[in-house]
Amino acid sequence: MGILDGKRVLVTGVITDASIAFSVARLAQEEGAEVVLTGYGRLSLVNRIAARLPKPAPVIELDVTDPEHLAALADQVRAHVDGLDGVVHSIAFGPADALGGNYLSTPWESAATALHVSAFSYKSLAMATAPLFGERGGSIVGLDFDAQVAWPGYDWMGVAKAALEAASRYLARDLGPRGIRSNLISAGPIKTMAANSIPGFEAFDGVWGTRAPIGWDMKDPEPAARGVIALLSDWFPKTTGEIIHVDGGVHAMGA
Predict the structure, then answer these.
(1) b (16+ CB within 10 A) / e for 54-81
(2) What is the pTM of this model?
């Protein structure tokens, strides 16, 4: 038996098999879960990637900024599973002018897009899926990048991640009475499609290469995915509002 045996999990943000979300979906299946995926804009690509999972997984179209998509999500999920025990938020986006050293000149419209897609959508996804959780509740897990400090080039995405961290704490407060936990995995940098859009991302390799006391492989999303799986399981029944760092220990190191 796996630690997610019998659980039903919705995983967002699977774009390539190098993504943390793909590793989450794969490990969830291997640990006994029934998995449903969401994608937006490139559904044919998501379907091709889904075919690489150990078992077939249905793909639902979801734009987390579209109220109609969110309103229809519960019914679309019910077409494949009879409820949910876990939801994984692996969605983030910032326009080019919100990154790369443009912090002071970024227009509100671009900053608003980063905040909406990367932070407010965490609450939106939680509310869209909350009716699918049973009396026992379940777990919502988001993917974070340490917002305790300002990173070179990360700019308004860093602000959005700080908002995500706050959003998770408030969800923990408001959904806790329903038995729904909200936690984040603060992952070290992974070379994904999303990372390619961050100017100067290569510099993180040097930072993690010298500061991670137990090492860090930017090509390996599985450690972060394992953290997500653990939070989806019943092994953290009284943990909510938490940020668990899976970053090789960099967050705890000084200069």
Answers:
(1) eeebbbbebbbbeeebbeebeebbeebb
(2) 0.96
